[in-house]
Amino acid sequence: YADKVYLVSKPGSANPGGKWDPGAGFTAVAAIPQGQAAVIHKERLFIVPGEASTTNTSRLKFSNPGNFDTWGASDFIDISQGDGTRLIDLTVLQDNILLFKNQSSYVLAYDVRPADAVVRKISLTIGVDRQYNVVNYENQVYIFHGGWVYEIINYDFHRLNTKAPFIRDDTAPSAFADESTFLCLLGDRLVCRFYRNVYIYGLRTRTWA
Question: pLDDT averaged over the chain?
C-alpha cells in the first residue's frame, strides 16, 4: 500500500509489525496489532487474530483510513464473541469482507465507516480450520474445512470434493506443524494439502487429481 509492504507480527512474537520499502528498508510500527491474516479494504488495513491468539480471539481490528501507522483504541469489531472459537482468516469479496472462524463464516459490509458495518452470518457450521485455507480466484472464493473444499457462490457453500473424498494419512513424518493442511492457487488449479496427500482441482475442467 502506497509503495510499501506492511508486515504483521504473529501473536506472541516479541517483534513488532512494520513497513518496508526499497529505499528506507524496514521501519517498525508498534501500533500495528498482532495477527495472522490481513487485507486492505477501502483504504484501511484489517487484521484478524488467527489460531495462535490467546486474547481477544474474535476481534477484527482496523487502521485509520489511508494511514496504517495509526490504530484507534476503539477501532475494532468483535465477531460472535464468546462462542469458543477464534477468528482465523478473512478475504474481500464483492466489496465486502468475508470472515472465517473455526466453525462459522460471516460477511461484513459498510459504506463509509467500519463502525457502521453490518455483520451477517452466512454459515454456522463451515469456517476454516487454520490459516492458508482461503483462496480467491476471479470472482469466487474457495475454502478448506474439515476435509472438504467449498466454493462460495453468492454466499452459498458448494462442496467440491463430494465424489473425491480426501483420505487422512498422518503417518510419518509425525510432525506436520503448520503444514498439515493448506489450500493455494497455481495458475487455474487449486492445490490442497491434506496431511501426506496432495489433491489438485482444475478450476476450468472441474475435475480432481
Answer: 93
- Do 34 and 49 meet the contact criterion of CB atoms below 8 Å apart? yes
pLDDT tens figures, 179-201:
688 999 999 999 999 988 999 99
pLDDT one-digit tens code per residue, 44-68? 999 999 999 999 999 999 999 999 9
Q: For 121-159, what is each residue's pLDDT tens digit?
A: 999 999 998 999 999 998 899 999 999 999 999 899 999
Q: How far apart are CA 18 and CA 30, in angstroms?
A: 7
DSSP letters spanning 33-101 = PP-SEEEEETTEEEEE--TT--SSTTEEEE-BTTBTT---TT-EEESSTTSS--EEEEEEETTEEEEEE
Assign 5 to helix, strand or coil: strand
Where does 79-160 show beta strands of DSSP type E?
Answer: 87-93, 96-101, 105-109, 118-123, 134-137, 140-145, 148-153, 156-159
Q: Would you mind telling me the total number of residues written for the chain in this entry?
A: 209
What whole-number distance in Å separates Cα of residue 44 and Cα of residue 71? 10
Sheet containing 87-93: give its strands across: 87-93, 96-101, 105-109, 118-123
Alpha-carbon distances, residue 96 vs 22, 91, 138, 179, 197 (angstroms): 32, 9, 15, 29, 33
**Which of 44, 98, 43, 100 lies closest to 75 in space, CA to CA?**
44
**50: burial class by Cβ within 10 Å (0-12, 13-18, 19+)?**
buried
